[in-house]
Amino acid sequence: MSETKQFTEDDKLLLDRLKSTIWYTVQKITAEECKQLGVTASPEYAAALTELVFNQIVTLGFDLESFARHAKRKTITTEDMKMVCRRNTGLQEVIDDYIKKLLEE
């Protein structure tokens, strides 16, 4: 992780559990996709993809916290997620549609 935030022991345990869960999910999705496509993926591929997803999630968390803090809030809102997605119009549309759907329920 490239961020400089200091993690407590409890944080580190939670991060380990998160990474394990991501690894399990990546393995499961990779196996399903490989079966469907008739290809194989090495364990190193799944491990690298797990690291990529994990690091993206951690970075996303830091970004969301930063946007909320900049807005002088302690709670992350959908507006913070929109800020993260502002340079990716495709993702921004998906997020906007999802938020609209949630508000209609």
Automatic annotation (TrEMBL):
UniProt xrefs under InterPro entries: CENP-S/Mhf1 (IPR029003), Histone-fold (IPR009072)
GO (cellular component) term, any one: FANCM-MHF complex
Family (UniProt): Belongs to the TAF9 family. CENP-S/MHF1 subfamily.
Keyword Ribosomal protein: no
Entry-linked Pfam families: CENP-S
Annotated keywords: DNA damage, DNA repair, DNA-binding
Stored SUPFAM superfamilies: Histone-fold
Top-level taxon of the source organism: Eukaryota
Species this chain originates from: Geotrichum candidum (Oospora lactis)
Protein name: Similar to Saccharomyces cerevisiae YOL086W-A MHF1 Component of the heterotetrameric MHF histone-fold complex
GO MF: chromatin binding; DNA binding; protein heterodimerization activity
UniProt keyword annotation of Phosphoprotein present: no
